[in-house]
Design goal:
Mean pLDDT: 88
Distance between the termini: 25 Å
Radius of gyration: 16 Å
């Protein structure tokens, strides 16, 4: 929480983007390493594809997040 609070004091996009990146990396690594361990499936390649989609969605959703944030600040 303290790290997020420090990031929040910087530019508006730093905290949510950092949170999304770290959360996506941890989630992807844990899911694919646990699910496909010992199966012979190239899970590392699959995990990079999944991570790329998560990062793309996080970047895309920053614009609606900013618009929504500005409406709550004025209210």
């Amino acid at each position: 929480v303290q790290i997020f609070d420090q990031l929040r004091r910087k530019q508006w996009f730093v905290a949510p983007l950092t949170s999304s990146f770290v959360g996506s990396i941890v989630d992807t690594f844990l899911f694919f390493s646990i699910s496909f361990y010992g199966t012979g499936i190239p899970w590392v390649t699959l995990s990079f594809g999944d991570l790329a989609v998560k990062i793309l969605v996080a970047l895309t959703m920053l614009i609606p997040f900013r618009l929504l944030l500005s409406t709550f600040k004025t209210a």
